[in-house]
Amino acid sequence: MPVTIDLSGSVAVVTGGTRGVGAGIARALLEAGAEVVTCARRAPDKPVEAAGRTARFLPVDLRDPAAVADFFDRVRGDHGRLDALVNNAGGTPFRMLGDGAAEQQARVVELNLVAPLTASLAAYEVMRRQPTGGTVIMIGSVSGTRPSPGSAVYGAAKAGLDNLARSMAVEWAPLVRVNTLVPGMVRTELSHLHYGDEDGIASVGRTVPLGRLAEPSDIGDACVFLASDRAAYISGASLLVHGGGERPAFLDAATANH
């Protein structure tokens, strides 16, 4: 008998869920049967749809605590509950540390660490009043597990997010589970900005042990698992979804002359 995950009747919020990885997460949750609410500062050009269903969009600036609290109050009022929050919103421009002012670097921390904290606190106020609690999923990054030149502050914020999730998992147990999903390189509509044309994307993909970049659906499927009862005893964990990681550079260097 096949194992399926059915999230019918549950309500999930995906921050930054209108494009790229966030849209992939929203689509996977829709396919699993969840009601999905996405949020961002600006409405998407087209709604996120999957399996004949559409994610709802509500605008919110995640850097505004009062607006975030109002957003989650509205989700609870309109949908009656909140079962999962996926803190996906984030990102950074490529910028070496010496090329950015302190204020610019602080905004990266605000978006990638402070904003998920703000959203999690507001979601917790809803979840802790529900008999079934809920789950919070942080979207981290391999940039938070290794040196990240050109995105050092982003990596530091993602490392902090992972540590924050572990502490939340302890403080908010047993009602609310908190985990971090740690993606590697993901192919999105913006991949060309990082990896170049199709040949460049394929070349970068060959550096991954599984031979390709992740698709947004790969990240979405992992979120569906963490949001489900199949992960009922998983909390305070970091799930690596990186295709095996990155081939160590010394291996190629050591064999270059052989």
TrEMBL record:
Any Pfam family hit: adh_short_C2
Q: Which SMART domains match?
A: PKS_KR
Domain (Ketoreductase) spans 10-179
Q: Which UniProt keywords apply?
A: Oxidoreductase
Which CDD domains would you find in this protein's record?
SDR_c (cd05233)
In the record, the note on similarity to other proteins reads: Belongs to the short-chain dehydrogenases/reductases (SDR) family.
Name of this chain's protein: SDR family oxidoreductase
Q: Which organism is it from?
A: Streptomyces wedmorensis
Highest classification ranks of the organism:
Bacteria, Bacillati, Actinomycetota, Actinomycetes, Kitasatosporales
